[in-house]
Amino acid sequence: MQVEGNFPMIRCQQVHKRFGRLEVLRGVTFDVAKGEVVVVIGPSGSGKTTLLRCINHLEAVNDGRIYVDGQPVGYREVKGKFVEMSERDVARMRASIGMVFQRFNLFPHLTALGNVTAAPTHVRKLGRTKALEAGRAMLEKVGLGDKLNAYPAQLSGGQQQRVAIARALAMEPKVMLFDEPTSALDPELVGEVLEVMKSLAREGMTMIVVSHEMGFAREVADRMMLMDEGVIVEEGPPAQFFDQPHHERTKLFLRKIL
């Protein structure tokens, strides 16, 4: 059921996630407007990755609600009650939520073009000719128009991550989630991935980025968030967040990483 009215592109309401007795997310609440770029930072184990996985319903929340473009993620409303979606419906829902992981997760037996066209062909049932045309366009977009027929083993880490971004974009997502997309890359390869992400931000893509690339965050983020122990400790525009943080926890964390 589509929620009517002026609804944000992403809404998290009192989201809780537990793994056994460990509560990883403890009542996380925030909105992301259409076209907004939010960069999330925080220490290891603070819940950042789990939050992204819940938004994409790779992990089901224990309490609370997540909405993307007004639709409840992982659930549908039936007679006023939320019922978990079927696997098929979840797959369709995920098509509108692109996600890029730390590791590239490319199919090693498929070329760059094959990796990018696989999901549109099998999930969106796009015809082969249209899928190939769109796949070429996406690889051109991330600067890999000359690597269509290269296999992952023939590509650098930065090139593989750009293929992963193209693969997510090929599904025409409404939002993009990035989970430390440069953390597995050699330092000299980080810039080429960040440039693609900057381009997406300029084009108005709604993005949540978990990253410790603070130069990128200062330049691109509309809003910063610090997570720690499963809660949002502080959020605000980059200038205020970096130069005049309110919370001692934020000041301590920034001193360690800057």
Task: Write structural notes for this entry.
With 258 residues, this protein is α/β, with parallel strands linked by helices. The chain is 36% helix and 26% strand. It has helices at 48-55, 87-94, 112-122, 128-141, 157-169, 187-202, 214-220, 238-243, 248-257; strands spanning 10-19, 22-32, 37-41, 63-68, 71-72, 75-78, 81-84, 97-100, 175-179, 206-210, 223-228, 231-236. A six-stranded mixed β-sheet has the order 8-9-10-3-11-12, sandwiched between helices. The protein has a four-stranded antiparallel β-sheet with strand order 2-1-4-5, with helices on one face. Helix 5 runs parallel beside helix 6 (187-202). The termini are far apart. The mean pLDDT is 93.
Mean pLDDT: 93
Termini Cα gap: 44 Å
Which structural class is indicated by helix and strand composition?
A: alpha/beta
Q: Trace the largest sheet across and list its strands.
A: 8-9-10-3-11-12
Shape: globular
Put simply, the count of helices is: 9
Radius of gyration over all CA atoms, rounded: 18 Å
* Helix content class: 25-40%
Q: Could you spell the SSE succession in H and E letters?
A: EEEHEEEEHEHHHEHEHEEHH
Low-confidence sequence ranges: none
Strand content: 25-35%
Major sheet, described briefly?
A: 6 strands, mixed
Give the oligomer, counting copies of the same chain as homo and different chains as hetero: single chain
Number of strands: 12
